[in-house]
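Final report, results section. Input specification for complex C-07:
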Amino acid sequence: MARRFFVKVMAPDRRALVALQGFDLDLFAPTATEAEGRCAIDGLITLDQLERLVDAGYQVLVQEDASRRARAQHDVSGLDDFIESMER
Amino acid sequence: MPHLGYLSAAAVEAALRQLASTYPSICQLLTLPEPSVEGRAVHAVRIGSDSGERTGLLVLAGVHAREIVNPDLVVSFALRTCQAYTAGEGLAFGGKRYGPDDVRAVVDGLDLFCFPLANPDGRVWAQSPAGDPMWRKNRNPNPGRPCMGVDVNRNYDFLWSSGIGTSTDSCSEVFKGAGAFSEPETRNVRHLLDEYPQIDCMVDVHSYSELILYPWGDDDNQTTDPAQNFANPAFDGQRGVVGSGYREYIPQPDLDWHLDTGIKVRDAIAAVRGRVYTLQQGVGLYPTSGTSNDYAYARHFVDAGRRVYAYVFETAREFQPPRPEGAQVIEEGSAGLMELALACVTTLPPAAHGAVAGSP
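Structure output:
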C-alpha cells in the first residue's frame, strides 16, 4: 500500500472546493471550512495524489504521516478491560 | 490496571449480550435480519422499561470502520444508562450531570435502540494487523469490480441515483454501491426503522470535526416552497450544484425542532469539558446523497405518518484519538446522546407520528 499522509487542501473558493470531488480522493467532507472566501478540507492522500492537486493549482499542507494517527490496530481492548476502565 | 484500548468488534458484540443478560427487565437483544458480508451476526439492543406507549430513539454508530471511538461511545452510554437506572442513580459526564429523574424519564418514557456497530467487517479489518487502520467502507468484495468495499453511508435510498457527493468507482472512498440498499448494513438500519414505528429520532454517530448536523445534506435548506423538494423530478440535475438556485424544502416546525434540540445537545456536550461543537446543516460546503440521516428524515415525505428527526454527530478531532482523549470524547458524546434522548421523550408525544403540514 502506498504511503499516505493527512493533509489540508486549500481551495480559492467554494466552487473549487466542490470541484475536488472530481479527483476522487479520500477527503473528509465534514471538515470542509470557509473563511474570508477561502475554503479548506482535510484528507488522506498519497504523494502522487498530492502532486496532481498541486499541478491543478491547489495548495496542500502536509500534516502528518498516516501511521502517526493510526491507533486502531494497537489500542484494542476486550470487554472486561473496557468495563474496568469505565469503573475507575 | 486495565489496558486502555478500543473495543474489538467481538467485544462490542459481547457487550450487547452482557447488557441484555445483566439487565433483562430493561434491555432486549435484537438480532438484525442480515449478517454482514463476511457472515458476522449483527445485533442491537432496545433499552426501555416497557411501560406502555412510548417514542423511540435510534442511536447508530460504527458505520465507517476507521471512526474507531463511536462504537465504544454507544456501548458505554448503554451500559451506564442501564446501571444508573437499576441503581436509581443519576449520570455524570465530566461537568455535565443528569439526575435520577432524568435517567428514569429516558428509560421509562423511551425505547432507546442502540446499534453500536453497523459495519463489523470494516472494524475487524481496521483493527487487524494485516488490515488497513484507515479503512472506511464495508468489506463487500464487489465481484466484477477492481476494488473492495461500499461506503455504507452513501448507500441509502435518498437521492441515490443523483450521484451527489458519491462515486460509481469501486475504488473510491465514497463508492455508493450497486444500488440503493445493496448492502446488508443499510438494510439492517432500514429494518429497524420499518419494524419499530415508534422511532421518532435518530442519530448516526461519526467522526470527525466536532459537529452536530441536521438535514438536509444535498443542498441548502429553504422553508417556503414545498414544491422544491428531493422527490420532484423537475429539479433533477440542480441539486447539490453551487449557484443553481435550488434549495431543499424543510418545513419550518421541523427545522425549528432540529435547531432547538441541536442547541441543547451542543450545550450539553460543552458542559463536559468546554469543547463547543458546531451545530449546522448537513450540507455544509460539501453536498452528499445516500446518507442515513437524510434517508431517515425523508421517509415521512414519501410515506406519510413516518417522521424521524435525524442528526449526525461528528465526534472528536481525529479518527483515532489517543485512548485517554477517546475517553473524553465518549463523555462528550454520551452527554449529547442523553440530551437528545431527553428532548425526544419530553417534546415528542408517542402518538406524534403524523406528517407535518406543508410536506410535499
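The interface with chain B takes residues 1, 4, 14-15, 17-18, 21, 24-26, 28-34, 39, 41, 44, 66, 69-86, 88 of chain A (CB under 8 Å). The mean pLDDT of chain A is 92. This concludes the modelling results for the funded period.
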